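Checklist before submission:
- one chain only
- standard amino acids only
- sequence pasted in full

Submission:
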Amino acid sequence: MNTPGCVEPRPGKCKKGKHMNTTKMLLICLLFVVNSLQASLLQEQNKAIAKRAFEEILSKGHFELVDQLYAKDFVNHAGHGDATLEEDQAALKGWHQAFSDIAIEPQKLIAEDDLVTVYWVARGTNTGTGNGLPATGKKVELGGITIWRIVDGKIKEECSAFDQLSMMRQLGLLPAEIK
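Returned file contents:
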């Protein structure tokens, strides 16, 4: 006869403590599933924040939303050195001055832990001056990648790269081919 609570398929073969080990394993598996679901939910929330920032601030220029989406101590680890939130937003405003019809569209969003990586495509016509560019009247299209660290629902850190050489060639500011 089986020990009460034992799920041993062969009667009389249940060893003391086997039921406890099975229960522990089930609890561990359940905790793993719950943690995975929580991580997945957080990653989806972070991707939604990233998508909203691209659509509302980067593309449409709704800079009044910056406080809702960016941490006050935000840092952009730009290639030339770290930039504060104010410096980062000033550069973004410069892109909007240079390209009045700018559209920066997220194409792929990938999340892991507190990081969101966005592959994006920017399109616009260079009708004004900004970020050191003269107005050329030419259209550009270029791709880039942004990696954001999102903490407590706000963008805290950024690393970005985009094809500046292609942009300069499309604007006619560099030769199409450098030999």
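Reviewer check: The first strand starts at residue 70 and ends at 78.
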